[in-house]
Specification:
339 residues, 10-stranded antiparallel beta sheet, rod-shaped, coiled coil
C-alpha cells in the first residue's frame, strides 16, 4: 500500500522564457483519474454502440412505417376506386331500369296495337284488373327518356352521399315497379293471347279480303237499273270488273257448298264459312273448287269470266248473313297479304 503515498510531479514548460510550472498528484488521484477516463471511454463506446443499434432500428422502423403507409394508401386508393366503380354500376342499373321501363311501355303499346289490329276492345282486358292495383305503364317523366345516340356534355362534379342515397332509393323503386308491372302483365298478356287467338279464328271465317286482284267496282249493292231491262231492280251483290282468266279467291276459310252452272249466275261457287255466313261468286269462266272441299282464305277457287247473265268480264260477289244478302263492301278491308 506504499504506492498510495507516492506523489508524481508534472512540469509544464510553456517556452524558454516562461516560468516552469510543477504539479504534484498522488498515485491514488492518478489511478482515480485513469479509472474515470476508462469508465468515461467505456460509457462513450457503449452509448455509441447503443445509438448505432437504435439508429439502425429506427431506420428500419421508418422504412417499415413508410411501407405500411404506402400499403394503406394503396388500400384506400383501391377502395375509393371500388366505390367509384360501384357508383358507376349503380348509375348503369338506374339507366337500365329506365330503359326496361320504356320497353315495358313499348310492350304495352304493342299489345294495344295488336288488340286494335284484330278488333279487340282494349278496355275489356284492363277492366279485369282494378285500376287501383294496376301499375301505370305511362307513369314516369317523359323527359327521362334519353336518345343515347346524341351528344352529351357538362361539368363533371363529385357525387354527394345524399345524391347517392337518392339514386339508390330511386333505382330500388324503379326495379320494384318493374317487378309489379311484369307480374300484372303476365296474366294480361295471356288473356290478350287467348283473345287474339279467338279473334284470329273469327277473322279466318270472316270474308274480309277482296276476292279479286281488281278493285274496280262496276255496280254497287242495292237498287239499280238493270243492264238488260233498264228497269229498277235489286242488286244482291257487288260487280267487280276485271279480265277473263283473272284468279278468284275465297274470301274466308270455309267449305264449298255449291260449284256449278246456272242460267243467271253462270259458273258459280258458294262457300259456307260459318252457320251464319256464306259467300257467292258468279259469272266465272272456270271453276277449280269442288263441292265439299275445304278452302282457306286466299285460296284460288276459279277464274273471272262472263258466263250466265252478264254483259262482260266481271265477278258478281255476294255476302249472305243469316240467309239475307248484305252489302259486301264493308267487309272488303284487306288484301291477301294483309288478311
Amino acid at each position: 500500500m506504499k504506492w498510495r503515498n507516492k506523489k508524481f510531479t508534472f512540469m509544464v514548460i510553456p517556452d524558454a522564457n516562461s516560468t516552469v510550472r510543477r504539479f504534484q498528484l498522488s498515485a491514488v488521484l492518478l489511478v482515480a483519474a485513469a479509472a474515470f477516463l476508462i469508465v468515461l471511454l467505456a460509457a462513450s463506446v457503449t452509448i455509441f454502440l447503443l445509438y448505432r443499434a437504435n439508429a439502425s432500428q429506427i431506420g428500419q422502423l421508418k422504412q417499415e412505417l413508410s411501407s405500411a403507409s404506402g400499403g394503406y394508401e394503396k388500400v384506400i386508393e383501391d377502395k375509393n376506386e371500388h366505390i367509384n366503380e360501384l357508383q358507376t354500376d349503380l348509375a348503369d342499373l338506374s339507366e337500365q331500369a329506365k330503359s326496361i321501363n320504356n320497353r315495358m311501355k313499348a310492350i304495352r303499346n304493342l299489345e294495344s296495337q295488336l288488340k286494335e289490329m284484330v278488333g279487340i276492345d282494349d278496355s275489356d282486358s284492363d277492366s279485369s284488373t282494378p285500376a287501383s292495383k294496376r301499375p301505370d305503364a305511362s307513369s314516369g317523366d317523359d323527359s327521362e327518356q334519353f336518345a343515347m345516340d346524341g351528344g352529351t356534355g357538362g361539368e363533371e362534379l363529385p357525387i354527394t352521399e345524399a345524391e347517392m342515397e337518392l339514386l339508390v332509393d330511386r333505382t330500388r323503386e324503379a326495379f320494384l315497379s318493374l317487378g309489379e308491372q311484369i307480374e300484372f302483365m303476365k296474366p294480361e298478356l295471356e288473356m290478350t293471347k287467348e283473345a287474339v287467338a279467338k279473334q284470329q279464328k273469327l277473322l279466318a271465317v270472316t270474308p274480309t279480303i277482296w276476292p279479286t286482284d281488281s278493285r274496280r267496282i262496276t255496280s254497287a249493292f242495292g237498287i239499280r237499273k238493270d243492264p238488260f231491262t233498264r228497269r229498277a231492280t235489286y242488286h244482291a251483290g257487288l260487280d267487280i270488273g276485271g279480265n277473263t282468266g283473272d284468279p278468284i279467291y275465297a274470301a274466308a276459310d270455309g267449305v264449298v257448298l255449291e260449284a256449278g252452272y246456272s242460267t243467271s249466275h253462270g259458273n258459280n261457287v258458294m262457300i259456307s264459312h260459318t252457320s251464319a255466313v256464306k259467300t257467292h261468286y258468279s259469272h266465272m269462266s272456270k271453276i277449280t273448287a269442288t263441292v265439299g272441299s275445304k278452302v282457306s282464305k286466299g285460296d284460288v277457287i276459279g277464274e273471272l269470266g262472263s258466263t250466265g247473265r252478264s254483259t262482260g268480264p266481271h265477278l258478281h260477289y255476294e255476302v249472305i248473313l243469316k240467309g239475307e244478302n248484305v252489302d259486301p263492301h264493308p267487309y272488303l278491308k284487306a288484301t291477301r297479304r294483309s288478311e
